[in-house]
Design brief:
Largest sheet: none
Number of strands: 0
Oligomer: single chain
Helix content: over 70%
Order of helices and strands: HHHHHHHHHHH
Distance between the termini: 29 Å
Number of helices: 11
Number of domains: 1
């Protein structure tokens, strides 16, 4: 794998900016996790190093993720527009026409609209993406690698931020309503309950130790490849290579 694909920045140590390296590593790992589902680009490089059909199958899965997220973002847009243009059904329950709530809703609308635009552009780009173009053009430098990761991650972060900001705005409207404690408790539940689910999501994405990795491996995994290689060599030696079948 090329050095500019790796999450390493040795040039920062020689220029006196070594303190920036831990932050960049965390951001790079987060972008890789959102864009490709892994903490590095190792798996991405393996797919690009194989035949074109394997690379196309991998890009198809990435495109499906972007498409699903774009559809969800598109479905959230009418909800925000309705809250921005319609009057509250009950002035005593939720006053979402207050300035702070309106600011939150407009911000959420802008983030969602930007997420849809970027998501559609990504689906078009991935449909014409080739293995050679990716190596020689799209990810030829470290700057382009970072740009690609940011573009692939933007719809997720935009949608997540829009939902969070819109929820804060509606919670503020409920908190300052005439219903008092009931609306305030409901607003807290709306914010705290989904936010608490982010904790197990983050914990399951943390790296595990090498000992735990060995425990989760198949017991006979280390014997499969040598036995397969021995069978192939024996078949070639005996002149019966036609008896091998791809399993």
């Amino acid at each position: 794998m090329p050095d500019h694909w790796k999450n390493e920045y040795p040039f920062l140590r020689t220029t006196g900016f070594a303190w920036v390296e831990p932050t960049l590593k965390v951001i790079f790992a987060a972008l890789c996790m959102v864009a490709f589902g892994s903490r590095s680009l190792d798996y991405r490089w393996k797919k690009m190093s194989k035949k074109e059909k394997h690379h196309e199958s991998y890009l198809e899965r990435i495109s499906q993720r972007v498409q699903s997220l774009t559809i969800i973002t598109t479905l959230l847009l009418p909800t925000i527009v309705t809250l921005l243009t319609a009057d509250p059904p009950s002035w005593s329950l939720v006053r979402y026409n207050e300035p702070f709530t309106q600011w939150c809703l407009w911000t959420a609308f802008g983030l969602l609209l930007g997420g849809v635009i970027v998501g559609v552009a990504e689906m078009y780009m991935l449909a014409t993406y080739t293995r050679r173009w990716g190596k020689e053009v799209a990810m030829a430098t470290r700057f382009r690698v970072w740009c690609g990761l940011i573009l692939l991650s933007y719809p997720f972060f935009a949608t997540f931020s829009a939902i969070l900001i819109g929820t804060i705005g509606l919670a503020h409207a409920s908190w300052h309503s005439d219903s008092g404690l009931h609306a305030a408790v409901g607003a807290l539940v709306v914010i705290v309950l989904p936010s608490s689910l982010l904790l197990p999501l983050g914990l399951r994405s943390l790296p595990v130790s090498k000992a735990q990795q060995r425990e989760t491996q198949c017991p006979n995994q280390s014997y499969v490849q040598p036995r397969r290689q021995a069978d192939i060599e024996a078949a070639i030696t005996n002149g019966h290579s036609e008896s091998l079948r791809v399993t």
